[in-house]
Design brief:
3-stranded antiparallel β-sheet; alpha+beta; 5 strands; two-stranded antiparallel sheet
Amino acid sequence: MPTMTECIMNGNTISINKALTLRDQADNRGVNREDYLCTKCHKPVRAHKSGGSVGAHFEHHKRNPDCPFFKS
């Protein structure tokens, strides 16, 4: 399965690194985070930092088995 490292934010494609930076900035300012959408199915996704052997990536909020990025 491919790993999702880009998303759509406000109609533009951004990288996972940019999304994580924006998320951290929003948290530090105490403002709402931006909404991120999958580049394939346009369903909501969330950004995850790297940890252990897994690199930073996006995951769907809800399972979407029809999406090429879906992991069971």
